[in-house]
Amino acid sequence: MNQIEKAKRFSELHVKGTPLVLYNAWDAGSAKSILEAGALAIATSSWSVAAAHGYGDGEAIPIEFAEQIVGRIAATVDIPVTVDL
Question: How far apart are CA 59 and CA 63, in angstroms?
């Protein structure tokens, strides 16, 4: 699924009256586990990504490093990923 298809799929998952449950991944391994558990999309949280890599939340993790982590997460799964930086 390419980026445009993932964006369209993510939009389609937002259905009034049917909440979309998103589980937070903090690295590629957790994203893979979430996918294998049946998730339709994956989220990240700034705190979990930062803390898993030894940083505090609140802009303490270098943005380039956060981008690498999120890139690995997105490359590991073939479902939409939403990012909280």
Answer: 8
Contact (CB, 8 A) for 42 and 81:
yes
8 Å CB contact between 70 and 28:
no
Q: Three-state SS for 84?
A: coil
**Tens-digit pLDDT profile for residues 17-36:** 999 999 999 999 999 999 99
CA 43 – CA 81 distance, rounded (Å):
6
Element (H, E) at 31: helix 28-36
pTM of structure: 0.86
79 in helix, strand or coil? Answer: coil
Instruction: Give CA–CA dist 48/14, Å, rounded.
Output: 24
